[in-house]
């Protein structure tokens, strides 16, 4: 596990975008695993900039997002599909049918693990981007999630609902369920890049660095993966012993 500490979220975004651009240069039809939340935004802005400068094309790229809320109306502006269109896909030359978000249609929720099958059929994820929940969740895999879990419908913890309430009018509007790739699904990726910025992520980063893999801190599963890069800012790194 390589850890790169940089000054601020912008530097984290630049470095992360560089890794994704290199992956696409090497393999123009790369399969990317993508994440939502505020942490990836600087990365997405850098990718858009690079595309506008003709540095990279997403024409043959396929993407799979980690998760989606369950219970929102189709087209709801809080959905992760909306987030990804607005903050990334609409600004690239990517073909929308090549962008995948776990389906929350009734039939799909009966067999959410079909999403893993879809990823496998596409050839598997080459580079997976991850954010980090304050409680150590990745995707929406809350503490206690089994390390071998596949895509499933999950309940969000009160702390995650509270953390994500800032995107909604009030906390009562935050969905209590989501469909999320499992920890086992995420671990299938060939390479994983986790980004975390801000003081509120420093406790989870400390557990990632200091603990043996354990289900109380889902992010520690990454210690079992052979190709992981952690890119954090000074604040997120503040509880790690130097
Ligand atoms: C949500 C998402 C996660 C994301 C996390 C952190 O819970 N499901 O994928 O990593 O939020 O978000 P932020 O980057 O806004 O702190």
> What profile does the largest beta sheet have?
7 strands, parallel
CATH architecture descriptor name: 3-Layer(aba) Sandwich
Ligand names: 2-amino-2-deoxy-6-O-phosphono-alpha-D-glucopyranose
Question: What is the overall pLDDT average?
Answer: 96
Helix content: 25-40%
Tell me the number of helical segments per DSSP (H or I, 4 or more residues long).
Answer: 8
Principal-axis shape equals globular
CATH class: Alpha Beta
Return the domain count: 1
Strand order of the largest sheet: 1-10-9-6-2-3-5
Q: What order do the helices and strands follow?
A: EHEHEEHEHHEEHEHEHE
Structural write-up:
The chain has 242 residues and is α/β, with parallel strands linked by helices. The chain has one domain (2-233): Rossmann fold (3-Layer(aba) Sandwich). The protein contains 8 helices and 10 strands. It has helices spanning 9-26, 41-52, 80-87, 106-110, 114-122, 158-164, 183-187, 202-210; strands at 2-6, 31-34, 62-65, 67-70, 99-100, 127-130, 152-155, 177-180, 191-196, 228-233. The strands form 2 sheets. The protein has a 7-stranded parallel β-sheet, with helices on one face. β2, α2 (41-52) and β3 (62-65) form a beta-alpha-beta unit. The longest helix is centred in the N-terminal third of the chain and has 18 residues, at 9-26. It is globular. The mean pLDDT is 96. Bound molecules: 2-amino-2-deoxy-6-O-phosphono-alpha-D-glucopyranose. 2-amino-2-deoxy-6-O-phosphono-alpha-D-glucopyranose (GLP) binds next to α6.
């Amino acid at each position: 596990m390589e850890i790169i500490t940089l000054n601020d979220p912008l530097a984290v975004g630049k470095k992360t975008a560089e890794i994704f651009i290199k992956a696409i240069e090497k393999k123009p039809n790369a399969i990317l695993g993508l994440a939502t939340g505020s942490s990836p935004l600087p990365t997405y802005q850098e990718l858009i900039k690079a595309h506008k400068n003709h540095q990279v094309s997403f024409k043959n790229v396929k993407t799979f997002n980690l998760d989606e809320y369950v219970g929102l109306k189709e087209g709801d502006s809080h959905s992760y599909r909306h987030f990804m269109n607005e903050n990334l896909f609409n600004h690239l030359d990517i073909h929308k049918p090549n962008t995948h978000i776990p389906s929350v249609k009734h039939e799909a929720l009966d067999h959410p693990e079909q999403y893993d099958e879809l990823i496998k059929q596409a050839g598997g994820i080459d580079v997976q981007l991850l954010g980090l929940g304050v409680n150590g969740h990745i995707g929406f895999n809350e503490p206690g999630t089994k390390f071998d879990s596949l895509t499933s419908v999950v309940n969000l913890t009160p702390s995650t609902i509270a953390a994500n309430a800032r995107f909604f009018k009030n906390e009562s509007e935050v969905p209590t369920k989501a469909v999320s790739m499992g920890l086992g699904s995420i671990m299938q990726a060939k390479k994983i890049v986790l980004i975390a910025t801000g003081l509120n992520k420093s406790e989870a980063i400390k557990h990632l660095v200091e603990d043996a893999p354990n289900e109380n801190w889902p992010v520690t599963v990454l210690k079992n993966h052979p190709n992981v890069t952690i890119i954090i800012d000074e604040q997120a790194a503040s509880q790690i012993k130097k």
